[in-house]
Fold this sequence. Notes:
Blueprint: H1 3-14, H2 17-28, H3 40-53, E1 57-62, E2 76-83, E3 86-96, E4 115-116, E5 119-121, H4 125-145, E6 150-158, H5 169-174, E7 185-188, E8 196-201, E9 203-212, H6 227-248, E10 264-272, E11 292-301, H7 307-324, E12 330-338, E13 341-342, H8 348-361, E14 366-370, H9 376-381, E15 388-390, E16 405-407, H10 408-426
Parallel strand pairs: 3-6, 3-7, 7-15, 8-14
Antiparallel strand pairs: 1-2, 2-6, 4-5, 5-16, 8-13, 9-11, 9-12, 10-11
Bound molecules: zinc ion.
Amino acid sequence: MSDSLTDRLKAGIDARRDDIVALTQGLIRIPTVNPPGDRYREICEFVEARLRRSGYTTEFVRALGKPGDSDKHPRWNLVARREGRRPGETVHFNSHHDVVEVGSGWTTDPFGGEVKDGKVYGRGSCDMKGGLAASIIAAEVFAEVVPNYVGAVEISATADEETGGYGGVAYLAEQGRFSPERVQHVIIPEPLNKNRICLGHRGVWWAEIETHGRIAHGSMPFLGDSAIRHMAALLAEIESSLYPALAKRTTAMPVVPPLARQSTLNINSIHGGQPEPEAGYTGFPAPIVAHSARIVLDRRYLIEETPEAVRQEVVDLLEGLKASRPGFSYELRDLWTIPPTMTERGAPVVRAVDSAIGEVLGLAPDYVVSPGTYDQKHIDRIGRLHNCIAYGPGILDLAHQPDEYVGIDDMLDSAKVMAIALNNLLNQ
Ligand SMILES: [Zn+2]
C-alpha cells in the first residue's frame, strides 16, 4: 500500500473526531438494557439512518419467536451492506447493540454520554457501542478514500449478545447471513484492547447434577438418607481429584487473563433440602433429611479437549461414588454446550488486521483468546465461517463496570486499524 493512501485513511479518521464522539454518544443515549431488551428498534433505526446516508442498503431483521422476543420486547437486528465497484469478497463488522443493566456505583449519568478527559462515559460505551461507532467511521472513511474498492462492506447491529445471542447473531447465522458464500471476513469490535487480536474463546459445558436421598425426621437422620451428604461426597471428590487434574492441563490457546489458560470449573450454584422460605416467613425451618441436592457446574474447556471427554470425567467421578458409596444415586442433566473456537493466525482477516495494527500503532499485536464466549460461537458453528476475529477499542476490564468508558483516541486508533484492514482486504 502506498504511504499516501495509508496517510489519507488515517487523516480522514482523525478529521472525524467530533463525529465519532457524537455517534458514540447517540448510541449510548438509547438505553438498550438487556434483559429485558429495551429499545432495540430505536437503536436499529438510529444506525440505519446513519448508514443509509452513507450509501448502505439496510434491512431490519426481527428474530421472531426466539428467546426473549415478544411484542413488548421485539428482538430487532440491523444488517447494512455497501457494494464496491465490482463483486468480490465481503468484510462484515458485527456489533451487539444491547447493554447490561446499570448496577450501582456510577458517578456519571449511565446514559448521558458525558465526555471527560478524552473519554466517553456510559453503559455500553466500552462494550461495545464505541466499537460499533469505530467500525462505522472506518467503513465510511475507507469508502471515501477508496471509492473503487472491490467487494462489499457489511455492518450489523445485533441483539442479545449479553444473553447468548439467540435473538441476534445466532438467528442471522441460521438465516445464512454468515455463510462463507455470502461473507468471507468477520470482525467483531468487542472491547479486547486496540493492540490485541482475539482469535476465539474457550468451550463451555454447563450441567446440573442432582443427588438423591430419602426424606425422614431430622431428629432421626439414620432413618433417612441425606442427599446433601451425598453431594458433599461428590464435592470432596471434585476438590481432591478434578480440580488438580484441570489445573495441570496446558493449552496452545493464548487465553487472557493467563490464569484462564487452563481448564476451569465453577460451581455455579448449590441447593439442597427444603427450599428457602418465602420472604416474610418468620418461623423456623422444619426438621427434615434432604431428599434432593443439586449443583450447577460451569466448566470451561480447551481446544485440546473434546466435549465427550469433559463430560466423561465427571461421569467417571459419579460412577465411582455410585460403586463405593452406599445409597449414592444421581442424575446428570446437560444444560448447554459450546465448543471452543480459535481462528488460525494465518487466516486472511487475521493477517489484514495484524499488519494494520503495525501501521497504526507501530507494534506487533498480542494474540489472545477470550475466557468466555461471545458471538463468534454462532458465526463459527452455525455460520460455518471460521475467518472471524474480535478486534475493538474498548478496555476489556471496564466491560459491565460502573463508570464504563471508551477512550476517544482508542476509538480513532482502532478505526484506523479497521480502515487499513478493509483496504488490505478489498483494495485489490
Ligand atoms: Zn460485548
